[in-house]
Write a structure and sequence with these properties.
The chain is about 40% helix and about 25% strand. By secondary structure, it is an alpha/beta fold. It has four domains: about 90 residues, Chorismate Mutase Domain, subunit A; about 90 residues, 3-Layer(aba) Sandwich (D-Maltodextrin-Binding Protein, domain 2); about 80 residues, D-Maltodextrin-Binding Protein, domain 2 (3-Layer(aba) Sandwich); about 90 residues, ACT domain (Alpha-Beta Plaits), CATH 3.30.70. Helix 4 links the parallel strand 1 and strand 2. Helix 1 crosses helix 3, helix 2 runs antiparallel to helix 3 and helix 11 packs antiparallel against helix 12. The termini are far apart. The chain binds prephenic acid. Prephenic acid (PRE) binds next to helix 1, helix 2 and helix 3.
């Protein structure tokens, strides 16, 4: 009896706190709408990744607990997403179909209030943003086990779109089926990449079961939702969409399997204080050129986090280089280094400066 009274009292207190939270959320929403009106007048960008980063960092740093800091980030992810939708409903194109990892990356970055539309290919995502059908696009660029996604890099050769943000997503594969029972599985469907990333686990655990390549993990989940004797390798999110049970979670052979996605838009992103800049350039074919192209960065102590080369399609044995470095293009040192680099280049293109993703 006493416990019941205590419970009731505690729940009343929770209700009072919730009322405060609701009131504060509405106070915040009104302020954000004022910010939106100012931005509309000055034609400024509605989505500001650097400001969002500042909010997350400030709140998680000062969080006294016991509410977990990761949850603070998740809650504010949704508060900001809903606020932004009040300023301007945001259309975001991503590499579809729905429930694939690009969809998850878009949800992670923009929250659940953004309107997310699947596109059938990487060029179609670029096109949707270029034509203004979407404000932003989300495309994969690199995987820790499979390497660079050259299709995305090649798109920047023609496109004038800018990288506005990066998203790091841990890619975990789930074995899903209607019954959730191992013994019912007579076939496994998935996209070739997840099948390759789970090869060892499949050989050990389902050695005689045929593996079937399909166009996406979503299609695999869809097929399996109508076949009680098949299983799909897909994301955990796909299980909720297609009403499937998890036979086995995290079956990828390599732990720490991350994919990096780029958020592309029509304008350059503001400086956040912890940024990366991506460049693309081609150099003249002459002795010592590789050394010279890296010198401007080494001399200024600018850290390079990635260098990648791709063949220039128009000319045999000539290459385009992609470089990721620490800093924003509005930093004097970075701007100077890029200027110096351009002396030994046929062309240099800044693909964008954007906040470094939290790993
Ligand atoms: O500060 C802004 O520029 C806002 O638009 C407000 C706000 C927020 O909810 O705090 C919303 C969206 C932006 O991406 C960043 C922050």
């Amino acid at each position: 009896m006493k416990e019941k009274q205590t419970l009731e009292k505690l729940r009343q207190e929770i209700d009072t706190v919730d009322d405060h939270i609701l009131d504060l959320l509405n106070q915040r929403a009104k302020l954000v709408m004022e910010v939106g009106a100012v931005k509309a007048k000055s034609h400024s960008d509605f989505h500001v990744p650097s400001r969002e980063r500042e909010i997350y960092e400030r709140l998680t740093a000062q969080n006294p607990g016991p509410f977990p800091s990761d949850a603070v980030r998740g809650v504010f992810r949704e508060i900001i997403s809903a606020s932004l939708a009040l300023e301007k409903p945001l259309n975001v194109a991503f590499l579809g179909p729905s429930a694939t990892f690009s969809h998850l990356a878009a949800m992670q970055h923009f929250g659940l209030s953004a309107s997310l539309s699947p596109e059938r290919s990487i060029p179609a995502v670029f096109e949707a943003v270029e034509k203004g059908e979407a404000y932003y696009g989300v495309v994969p660029v690199e995987n820790t086990t499979e390497g660079m996604i050259s299709h995305t890099l090649d798109m920047f050769m023609e496109s004038e779109l800018k990288i506005n943000a990066e998203v790091l997503l841990e890619v975990s594969h789930f074995l899903l089926s209607r019954t959730g029972r191992f013994e019912d599985i007579k076939k496994v469907y998935s996209h070739p990449q997840p099948l390759a990333q789970c090869r060892k686990w499949l050989a050990e655990n389902l050695p005689n079961v045929p593996l079937v390549d399909v166009a996406s993990t979503t299609l695999a989940a869809q097929i399996v939702s109508e076949d009680y004797t098949a299983a799909a390798i897909a994301s955990e999110y796909a299980s909720s969409i297609y009403n499937l049970k998890v036979v086995k979670a995290r079956i990828e052979d390599q732990v720490n399997n991350f994919t990096r996605f780029l958020v592309i838009g029509r304008k350059m992103a503001d400086k956040s204080g912890d940024d990366k800049t991506s460049l693309m350039f081609s150099v003249r074919d002459e002795p010592g050129i590789l050394h010279r192209m890296l010198e401007p960065f080494a001399q200024r102590g600018i850290n390079l986090s990635k260098i990648e080369s791709r063949p220039l399609k128009r000319k045999a044995w000539e290459y385009i280089f992609y470089l990721d470095l620490s800093g924003h293009i509005s930093d004097l040192e970075v701007a100077d280094a890029v200027k110096e680099l351009s002396v030994c280049c046929q062309f240099v293109k800044v693909l964008g400066s954007y906040p470094r993703a939290r790993s």
